[in-house]
TrEMBL record:
Residues 143-213 form the HTH luxR-type domain. Keywords: DNA-binding, Phosphoprotein, Transcription, Transcription regulation. This is DNA-binding response regulator. It comes from Streptomyces inhibens. GO terms for molecular function: DNA binding. The modification 4-aspartylphosphate is found at residue 52. CDD domains: LuxR_C_like, REC_NarL-like. It comes from the Bacteria. The keyword Phosphoprotein applies. Pfam families: GerE, Response_reg. The lineage of its organism: Bacteria, Bacillati, Actinomycetota, Actinomycetes, Kitasatosporales.
Amino acid sequence: MRVVIAEDNALLREGIVLLLTSAGHEVVAVAASGPEVLPALLAHRPDVAVLDVRMPPGFRDEGLRAALAARREIPGLPVLVLSQYVEETYAAELLGGGASGVGYLLKDRVGRVDEFLDALERVAAGGTALDPEVVTELMTRRRDNPLDALTPREREVLQLMAEGRDNTTIAKLLVVSDRAVSKHIGNVFAKLGLPPSDSGHRRVLAVLAYLNGGS
């Protein structure tokens, strides 16, 4: 894969570059500040971008703004956002468009090499990769709470769906059959009023849009 990296922390940036090149990917550009990000993405049109949310000069949301602008210019550009903390507003804004190929991971996850690479590949392929802590925050902060109608097992399934897991992986993680997972997913969609025919990343984004108060 061809990757653009935007991260102001030089040590982390070079670590990601080394990690990706060692895994056989090509880092076509790096950016160390917000104004550098969009030009790099438009110039190289990578298979996936790895972007820090907060970058110089303001350390607010420069990376996220660049990612959203790039996705307007390059529809469907896969973007994996990194953040130091769970920032609900940023997660909701990134996911609110309902587009494919989006991820939001906490920076600690980069150190878990296999998990990070798996998330990057899922995003590049048009899927979704959300940090489990982000999903938990989104679920627990929702107050108007049809989630209360879900059983504990259905909530587990919903969380794994939101992380971007497919049915087979969910079954293995929960040590249940594929048929049981399909039944739980059907129950989740029915209780949340979401179309049961949605599949893949679209069903994940529909659940996330619901959790974030979107349409």
